[in-house]
């Protein structure tokens, strides 16, 4: 059987992002700009990969509402196969609300992803088992329930399909704990890395130790993102640091998802880990410069134009 597609499993949402034009004050209304766009970790990664030329299948859930229709229409337009997305009446589509400070950094956020955990069940995973058999790689987020994650890893193991994971949030990241030995790639930020391995991450050196500890726990490739400091990575044979690409920042939202997608692309195409990671930093930089959650002009050409050698 020819492995033909990438299978993305997890959240698809509508993102509402408000960026303050001045200092944020608790309890006060601050002038700024509010934008609404499609989002959700797995959907974001799926869109990035589709824009980079990969064949992508999304397994997610949306409500039978305007938000759900917007997500499905936009995803189909950029080349994602949404024929397996569940559309259910009586539940609202997932939503993400972010407040950004005047620099574009996240001040706080609220996510309402209940539909993902409720509807993407072990039974749904089993019904879609043919998608696993034919997949080149699986990428997931931790909005999935622990039972569903166990089903995903079980089918991936059965069919010999590598799995990559975005830990999503520090609260949800520990759901990956039982499955670390089965991960090809994990891409936590500092807080998520702490939640996964129990080691405090405060700087580049402690981030390298955390990445190495994740490899010691069984992950093949661990990348810990550090914002303006760039990222560190580790495998059983090497570790390193890649600085962030200096750029004008419009919005931090989605940069980590772009990084994950580009690293996956590099690995799929047989790039050495250090080169795949640099491809990821290029995708993150392009996304930081864009007010959309996924850069609508993302392409392989733009990725390589900005690549730091």
Topology at a glance:
Layout: E1 5-9, E2 13-20, E3 32-39, H1 41-51, E4 56-59, E5 61-63, H2 66-77, E6 80-81, E7 86-88, E8 94-100, E9 106-112, H3 114-119, H4 122-127, H5 129-133, E10 135-141, H6 146-159, E11 163-166, E12 183-186, H7 190-197, H8 204-216, E13 221-225, E14 231-234, E15 239-242, H9 255-268, H10 273-288, H11 300-305
Parallel strand pairs: 1-4, 1-10, 2-8, 4-6, 5-7, 10-11, 11-12, 12-13
Antiparallel strand pairs: 2-3, 8-9, 13-14, 14-15
Helix pairs in contact: 1-9, 7-8, 9-10
Q: Would you list the SSEs in sequence order as H and E?
A: EEEHEEHEEEEHHHEHEEHHEEEHHH
Instruction: Give the quaternary arrangement of the chains.
Output: single chain
On the 0 to 100 scale, the average pLDDT is 93
Q: What is the CATH topology classification name? A: UDP-N-acetylmuramoyl-L-alanine:D-glutamate ligase
How many strands appear in the DSSP assignment?
A: 15
Q: Any idea of the CATH class?
A: Alpha Beta
Helix content: 25-40%
Termini separation: 37 Å
Strand order of the largest sheet: 6-4-1-10-11-12-13-14-15
Helical segment count: 11
> What is the CATH superfamily classification?
Ribokinase
Low-pLDDT runs of 5+ residues are none
The backbone outline, from C-alpha atoms, is globular
Beta-strand percent range: 15-25%
The major β-sheet equals:
9 strands, mixed
Radius of gyration: 18 Å
Q: What CATH architecture do you see? A: 3-Layer(aba) Sandwich
């Amino acid at each position: 059987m020819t492995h033909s597609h990438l299978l993305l499993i997890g959240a698809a949402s509508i993102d509402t992002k408000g960026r303050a034009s001045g200092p944020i004050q608790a309890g006060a209304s601050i002038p700024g700009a509010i934008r609404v766009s499609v989002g959700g970790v797995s959907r974001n990664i799926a869109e990035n990969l589709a824009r980079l030329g990969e064949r992508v299948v999304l397994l997610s859930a949306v409500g039978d509402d305007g938000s759900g229709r917007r997500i499905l229409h936009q995803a189909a337009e950029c080349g994602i196969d949404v024929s397996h997305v569940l559309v259910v009446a009586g539940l609202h589509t997932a939503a993400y609300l972010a407040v950004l400070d005047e620099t574009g950094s996240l001040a706080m956020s609220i996510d309402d992803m209940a539909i993902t955990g409720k509807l993407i069940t072990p039974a749904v995973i089993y019904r879609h088992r043919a998608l696993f058999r034919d997949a080149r790689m699986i990428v997931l987020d931790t909005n999935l329930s622990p039972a569903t994650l166990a089903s995903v890893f079980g089918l991936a193991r059965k069919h010999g399909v590598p799995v990559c994971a975005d830990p999503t949030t520090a609260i949800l990241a520990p759901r990956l704990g039982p499955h670390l030995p089965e991960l090809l790639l994990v891409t936590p930020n500092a807080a998520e890395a702490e939640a996964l391995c129990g080691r405090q991450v405060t700087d580049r050196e402690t981030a390298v130790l955390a990445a190495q500890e994740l490899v010691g726990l069984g992950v093949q490739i661990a990348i810990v993102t550090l914002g303006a400091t760039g990222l560190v990575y580790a495998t059983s044979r090497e570790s390193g640091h890649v600085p962030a690409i200096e750029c004008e920042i419009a919005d931090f939202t989605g940069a980590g998802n772009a990084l994950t997608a580009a690293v996956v692309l590099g690995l799929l195409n047989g790039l050495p880990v250090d080169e795949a990671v640099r491809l990821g930093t290029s995708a993150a930089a392009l996304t930081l410069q864009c007010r959309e959650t996924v850069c609508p002009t993302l392409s392989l050409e733009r990725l390589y134009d900005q690549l730091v050698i």
